[in-house]
Design a protein that fits this description.
Layout lengths: L2 H18 L6 H12 L3 H12 L6 H60 L5 H50 L10 H18 L3 E8 L2 H8 L1 H18 L5 E6 L2 E7 L3 H16 L2 E3 L6 E4 L2 E7 L6 H17 L5 E3 H8 L1
Parallel strand pairs: 6-7
Antiparallel strand pairs: 1-3, 1-6, 2-3, 4-5
């Protein structure tokens, strides 16, 4: 099979799967499922494969999260490489200017040395005047070049600073969920790893909340995806309003959110989970186009605390188990790992 035939087969497979799973045939969605069949992005292939195996729905929120999680990183790498190339060009230019300035300085030094030798000899007033005029001219030329170099270096410095700021903006964008404005899964995973390392180093507690919007798919199907996006933003705002500066609230994926709580015990984490749950339930969701009150949103929360020597992935698995238990127990509640242990005993 040649390259054209393979691409055609991949495209047909992607379109067929999208039709089977009732996924809107947009270019953005096609890109995801083409990448799944092509196998060129292991993250996309693994995630979509798990979704299919578990027969979980590809909601618009899940698809948006997929694009942001797996393709913004490649965009960041590409833009970072472009900025790095520009910085390299600017630095090469600076080095060239400095080398040129070094040669000018050497030439000026030779002029001064020659003049010093001439001043030690007997000269007529006219010869001395010519020598001094030559020194004055060389000095003025050197001052002019030095001033020009200073201006050029300042300009280059500004260019490098602008590029640095742009790179930081791109980096921040790659770590931010585009819909809700809070950190995304990539930022969550990185911060959890650092928080776990700090907790182990200092012997401090670390807890994680995993939160999921109750019956989000039904809500989406009833009121439309734009209103569903409004729900996601509402929950994200409640999380942001109820966490402290050292804590991290992030959109973990689809309608699921995570909160990292350094230096926090299980009891305090449960209290905060209930505080967030009550804050979400207390909000009235209003349809912007009509002003109609659509009702309230609820979330279920699972809480787990890092055990000594435990890896972050195990902590997340236990928090997910607690979240599942909260869903099974009727939703709109907080379940901690302590409750799960008590039920298993």
């Amino acid at each position: 099979m040649n390259r054209h035939e393979r691409a055609e087969q991949l495209a047909k497979s992607a379109i067929a799967l999208m039709a089977e799973r009732h996924i809107a045939p947009t270019p953005e969605n096609f890109k995801l499922f083409y990448a799944y069949f092509a196998g060129e992005n292991p993250g996309v292939s693994a995630f979509i494969g798990d979704m299919i195996a578990g027969r979980r729905p590809f909601t618009p929120a899940v698809l948006v999260d997929l694009r942001q999680r797996f393709f913004t990183e490649h965009q960041f790498d590409r833009e970072a490489a472009e900025i790095g190339a520009k910085v390299s060009i600017t630095l090469d230019s600076v080095m060239g200017k400095l080398q040129s300035a070094g040669k000018d300085t050497e030439a000026y030094g030779r002029t001064l040395s020659a003049a010093s030798g001439e001043l030690g000899s007997d000269h007529s007033p006219a010869a001395l005047r010519k020598l001094v005029d030559g020194l004055i001219s060389a000095t003025k030329t050197m001052e002019t070049r030095a001033s020009a170099l200073e201006v050029e270096l300042q300009h280059s410095s500004h260019e490098v600073e602008e590029l640095r700021q742009k790179l930081e903006a791109v980096r921040q964008e790659s770590l931010t969920d585009g819909l809700t404005g809070i950190p995304n899964r990539k930022a969550f995973d990185a911060e959890l790893q650092k928080a776990a390392e700090r907790a182990a180093q200092h012997g401090q507690p670390l807890c994680v909340l995993m939160c999921d919007i109750d019956r989000f798919k039904t809500f989406n199907d009833t009121w439309g995806h734009q209103t569903g996006d409004q729900v996601l933003r509402l929950v994200a705002n409640c999380l942001s309003e109820n966490v402290k500066g050292r804590d991290t609230a992030a959109r973990y994926g689809g309608e699921e959110f995570g909160v990292i709580l350094p230096e926090t015990t299980l009891d305090v984490a449960v209290t905060l989970g209930n505080q967030i749950r009550a804050a979400v339930e207390g909000k009235k969701l209003v349809k912007k186009s009509t002003g109609d009150i659509l009702g309230t949103i609820t979330i279920s929360v699972g809480v787990a605390m890092l055990a000594p020597g435990e890896k972050p992935v195990a902590l997340l698995q236990r928090a997910d188990a607690c979240l599942y238990a909260a869903k099974e127990a009727g939703r709109n509640r907080v379940v901690s790992e302590r409750e799960l242990r008590a039920q298993a005993a």
